[in-house]
Design brief:
Blueprint (H helix, E strand, L loop, with lengths): L1 H18 L28 H13 L14 H12 L24 H8 L18 E2 L4 H4 E10 L2 E8 L5 E8 L5 H16 L8 E6 L3 E7 L6 H4 L8 H20 L2 E2 L8 E3 L8 E3 L6 E2 L18 H4 L7 H16 L9 H10 L6 H4 L4 H10 L10 H5 L2 H6 L7 H9 L5 H14 L2 H14 L6 E2 L1 H12 L2 H15 L7 E2 H8 L2 H4 L2 H11 L6 E2 L1 H7 L7 H8 L10 E2 H9 L8
Parallel strand pairs: 1-5
Antiparallel strand pairs: 2-3, 3-4, 4-6, 5-6, 7-10, 8-9, 11-12, 13-14
Helix pairs in contact: 2-3, 4-6, 8-10, 10-13, 17-21, 17-23, 18-21, 19-20, 23-26
Length: 592
C-alpha cells in the first residue's frame, strides 16, 4: 500500500515538475512561437480586452481622444472601462450562482460510455465498423508515456494549458490539465458532455480534440495547437483593416456557429479570446475554441442557466428569461461591432453598469466612428443585436446577409480538386479511417488551407456541410452541364458521405481530396501508425484500434473483416509493413 502511494506521489511530482520546467526535457520553442494559443480556456485574469482594444486602435487609427459621444462619454472612456472590467471576468457571470445544469447521467459515469452515449452511438459492441468524423481517443495510458510536457501557454478557472509534443511523431498539441479536486459530480459530467460535443463537431473553423487521458488527480484533454494568436491581436497586423477583411472573418465564424446550431449545439461564451487563428500564415483560418459552456439544446425546451461574459452576454440571459441558440448571435453582433469601431456597444465602469446597459439593449452608431462604415454593415449588426430573440436574425441568415456576400471573395473551384471528388471510391473502411486520422491529425495546417477555401466555396449556405444540391451546383459551374453534374454527384455521393448522414462534412471532403502523392508519404504514414500503436511495440491490436475510434468495442467478426485486406501473416495484428502496404497500394481508393 505504501509503495503504491509513493509511486502515485512520484508520478504526480513528475507531471507538476514538467509543467513548471524543473525537470525533464522541455519542448524547445522557436522565438516566434505564440504563447497565447490556449485551445480551451484563455487566461481570464489577464487584461485581454485591453490588448484587443490596443490591437484594434493600432490598426484602425482610433484615437484615445475620440470626440465626446452624445451620452457624454468618450471612446477612450469606453476602452478604459473595457480594460478594467476584463481583469476580473470569467466565462460565467460573476454575480450569479455558478451551478452547472444538472445532467441526467448516472453516478460513476466514465468518459467512454458518456461520450459515446452523447454521440448517439450504441453502447453495446459495434456490429459494424463506423468511421468516426472525429477520432477522439479515450486513452487508458499514462499521459507521460505519450507526451513530453512543455511550457504553460494558458491558465483558466478550471486548469492549466500546456504545450505538449507527441513523443513518437513529434507533433505539437495543446494539453488542458484539469484537477479533479476542483470538479464536483456535475462539473465532471459537464466535462464529459463537452468532450461528447467536440466528438460530434466536424467543421474547419472549430477546434479539434484528439485525446482524453485521466488519472487519480487530473483529466487531460489533448487538442490541436493554434499558433496564430487571438482575433483582436492579429488584426493589428492587417493594413488596411477594411470591411472586406472583417466580413471574411465574420463569414468563417458565422459558418462555425451556424453548423453548431444546426446540430443543436449552443456555445454560450463567444468572445474574441475564444476565436484564434490556426497558424501565422496570412491566409490562415479562424478556429472557435472553448466549448466548456456549450450544451445540447432542444427546440421544444428553452435553456435557463445564466452564463456568459460581460460585454458579450445576451440580454435574455441577464433578465432570467428562458433562452435559445440566438444568444450566440447576439455575442457575434457585439464582436462585429467591436471589429468595425474598436469599442463595445454596451459598456460601463463596472460589471453592473455593463449588465444594465445590456438589459436595456440600446446602442448607437456614433458618427465619429461609423460615418465611413457601410449601411449594410450597420444593418447586419442591428439585426444581430435585436433585443427580442424572436426578431433576431439566425446565424445561417446572417451568413447570407448582403454585407457578407458582397464583401467576401469566393475562391474559384479547382478542376483537380473536383476531379478527385468525382473519382473517390470508399472500398476499404479501415483504409478510409486511417486517411481520416491522417487528414485531421497528421497533416499540418498549411496543407489544409487551400482545401478549406475550396470547401467554403462549395458550401454556399454556410452550414459547414455539403449537400447534394451544393455539389451539383459546383459541378454545373465546372462542367457547364447540369444533367452531367447531377449524374456525377449521384455516382459518388454515397462514397463521399462516409457516415451516411446525407451530407458531406469537412473530414469526409478532406479524405476524398487528399493528393496521394503529397499525403501518402512513408513519413506521414508512419506517423499515423505511431498514433494508433500507443504501446510502441510495432503492432496495431484490436484494443488500440478501438481506442483510436473513441472506445467503442468491436466484435471479433468486424475485426477479422478489417484484417482481411492487410494482415498478410495472419497473426491477428497489423504490422508497420502491412500498414504501409495497405495505404501505399491504395490506387483503387482514388480510382487511379
Amino acid at each position: 500500500m505504501g509503495c503504491c502511494q509513493s509511486q502515485d506521489q512520484e508520478h504526480e511530482k513528475n507531471i507538476e515538475d514538467k509543467i513548471h520546467g524543473r525537470q525533464g526535457k522541455v519542448i524547445s520553442q522557436d522565438n516566434d512561437r505564440e504563447q497565447n494559443s490556449d485551445t480551451y480556456e484563455k487566461d481570464y485574469e489577464k487584461n485581454q480586452v485591453a490588448k484587443q482594444q490596443k490591437a484594434i486602435n493600432s490598426q484602425q487609427g482610433i484615437s484615445s481622444s475620440t470626440k465626446e459621444q452624445t451620452n457624454g462619454s468618450t471612446a477612450n472612456e469606453k476602452n478604459t472601462a473595457v480594460s478594467k472590467q476584463n481583469s476580473k471576468h470569467s466565462s460565467s457571470i460573476t454575480d450569479i450562482p455558478q451551478k452547472v445544469e444538472k445532467q441526467s447521467q448516472p453516478n460513476g459515469v466514465n468518459p467512454i460510455s458518456f461520450a459515446t452515449q452523447k454521440s448517439d452511438q450504441k453502447q453495446n459492441v459495434s456490429e459494424d465498423f463506423k468511421i468516426q468524423k472525429n477520432m477522439v481517443r479515450i486513452s487508458t495510458q499514462d499521459i507521460l508515456d505519450s507526451y513530453t510536457i512543455g511550457k504553460v501557454i494558458g491558465e483558466g478557472g478550471f486548469g492549466t494549458v500546456c504545450l505538449v509534443r507527441h513523443k513518437t511523431t513529434q507533433i505539437d498539441r495543446a494539453m488542458k490539465m484539469i484537477p479533479k479536486k476542483k470538479l464536483n459530480k456535475s462539473d465532471e459530467d459537464k466535462l464529459f458532455e463537452e468532450l461528447a460535443i467536440l466528438r460530434q463537431i466536424d467543421h474547419p473553423c472549430i477546434v479539434k480534440v484528439f485525446e482524453h487521458f485521466q488519472d487519480e488527480k487530473y483529466h487531460y484533454l489533448i487538442s490541436e495547437y493554434c499558433t496564430g494568436g487571438e482575433l483582436f491581436e492579429r488584426i493589428k497586423d492587417v493594413s488596411p483593416f477594411t470591411e472586406k477583411v472583417a466580413a471574411g472573418y465574420m463569414k468563417q465564424i458565422l459558418s462555425a456557429i451556424s453548423y453548431c446550431h444546426i446540430n443543436n449545439i449552443v456555445h454560450r461564451d463567444l468572445k474574441p479570446e475564444n476565436i484564434l487563428f490556426d497558424s501565422k500564415a496570412t491566409n490562415s483560418n479562424l478556429k472557435v475554441i472553448d466549448f466548456g459552456a456549450s450544451t445540447k439544446f432542444d427546440h421544444n425546451e428553452k435553456l435557463t442557466k445564466r452564463i456568459g461574459t460581460p460585454f458579450y452576454v445576451a440580454p435574455e440571459i441577464l433578465t432570467k428569461k428562458p433562452y435559445d441558440e440566438k444568444c450566440d448571435v447576439w455575442s457575434l453582433g457585439v464582436i462585429m461591432y467591436i471589429l468595425l469601431c474598436g469599442y463595445p456597444p454596451f459598456w460601463g465602469q463596472t460589471d453592473q453598469e455593463i449588465y444594465e446597459k445590456v438589459k436595456k439593449g440600446k446602442f448607437e452608431f456614433y458618427d465619429e466612428d461609423w460615418a465611413d462604415r457601410s449601411s449594410d454593415a450597420k444593418d447586419l449588426i442591428s439585426k444581430m443585436l435585436q433585443y427580442d430573440p424572436k426578431d433576431r436574425i439566425s446565424a445561417t441568415e446572417a451568413y447570407a446577409h448582403p454585407w457578407i456576400l458582397s464583401n467576401v471573395h469566393v475562391e474559384p473551384l479547382d478542376d483537380k480538386m473536383m476531379k478527385k471528388l468525382s473519382q473517390f471510391a470508399a472500398k476499404n473502411k479501415l483504409r478510409i479511417a486511417i486517411l481520416n486520422l491522417m487528414a485531421n491529425q497528421v497533416l499540418n495546417t498549411q496543407d489544409k488551407i487551400e482545401l478549406v477555401k475550396h470547401f467554403e466555396s462549395l458550401d454556399t449556405n454556410g452550414d459547414g456541410m455539403l449537400s447534394k444540391e451544393e455539389l451539383i451546383e459546383g459541378y454545373t459551374k465546372l462542367l457547364g452541364d447540369q444533367l452531367k453534374a447531377k449524374q456525377t454527384v449521384e455516382n459518388v455521393f454515397n462514397d463521399l458521405d462516409l457516415d451516411g448522414s446525407g451530407k458531406v462534412e469537412f473530414s469526409e471532403f478532406l479524405v476524398a481530396c487528399l493528393q496521394k502523392e503529397k499525403v501518402l508519404t512513408k513519413d506521414r504514414i508512419e506517423k499515423a501508425f505511431k498514433l494508433i500503436d500507443t504501446d510502441g511495440n510495432g503492432q496495431i491490436t484490436k484494443k488500440e484500434l478501438e481506442e483510436m475510434m473513441g472506445g467503442l468495442p468491436l466484435n471479433e467478426k468486424v475485426w477479422e473483416s478489417l484484417l482481411k485486406d492487410c494482415d498478410v501473416n495472419q497473426d491477428g495484428q497489423i504490422s508497420l509493413t502491412e500498414f504501409l502496404d495497405l495505404l501505399l497500394n491504395a490506387k483503387e481508393l482514388f480510382n487511379l
